[in-house]
Design a protein that fits this description.
- It is built from one helix and twelve strands; from the N terminus they run H-E-E-E-E-E-E-E-E-E-E-E-E.
- The protein starts with a helix and ends with a strand.
- Helix content is 8%, strand content 54%.
- The longest helix has 15 residues.
- The protein has 191 residues and is mainly beta.
- Strands 1, 2, 3, 4, 5, 6, 7, 8, 9, 10, 11 and 12 form a twelve-stranded mixed sheet that branches.
Length: 191
């Protein structure tokens, strides 16, 4: 389970990074030590301290656990899933994006593990009960039906105040190097 979640996060941050900088981007995750204006000092799991500058328009998000009934027609979602032997796609994790992230990474594609897929798409229809069912998605060039079992983790990505990036907060961000060598981020996830 941890492997697909890490892949999901990596795929999400890759989609969020500007295409021109995607190959030079690095994931910075850890605990905020201090904040000085736009500069955020983060202590990573290995004990390294890194400074990242947040863009003026940086989007700060947090994942809020929700149940299947929160998924609605018209929502923009991302689903990390596994294609079963019968061809059906079962979600391992599903996230509802805020409107500000509509279109990020749109489409259906394979992930690094065999039979794993990532679908970022608009919900066309939801069929099922509060516990689970099928999410029918649409994106340019196709549609995908995703089975969401009762045990599938579902979260809603909510935009939160930038002030939540403060000492003691656990954060994860995709940072790109600036011309001066500094690390810069446009998207921050507070855990």
């Amino acid at each position: 389970m941890r492997q697909h979640v890490s892949g999901f996060v990596a795929m999400l941050f890759s989609a969020l990074a500007a295409p021109a900088f995607a190959q030079n981007a690095t994931t910075v995750a850890g605990v905020v030590q201090s904040v000085d204006g736009a500069n955020v000092n983060i202590k990573t799991a290995d004990g390294t301290t890194m400074m990242v500058k947040l863009a003026a328009e940086a989007i700060v998000t947090q994942n809020k656990k929700v149940d299947f009934s929160a998924v609605k027609s018209g929502d923009y979602i991302a689903a990390a899933a596994v294609q079963q032997a019968d061809g059906k796609i079962h979600a391992q994790e599903l996230r509802i994006f805020p409107e500000s992230m509509r279109g990020i990474g749109e489409g259906h594609r394979p992930m690094s593990q065999p039979n794993q897929t990532m679908t970022n798409a608009t919900v066309a229809e939801v069929v099922g009960t509060a516990a689970g069912g099928v999410v029918k998605t649409k994106y340019p060039g196709g549609t995908t039906d995703i089975i969401v079992d009762p045990a599938t983790p579902i979260t809603e990505i909510v935009t939160i105040d930038r002030g939540e990036v403060k000492p003691g907060a656990s954060v994860s961000m995709r940072a790109t190097p600036g011309a001066d060598g500094s690390l810069n981020a446009r998207f921050v996830r507070v855990q």
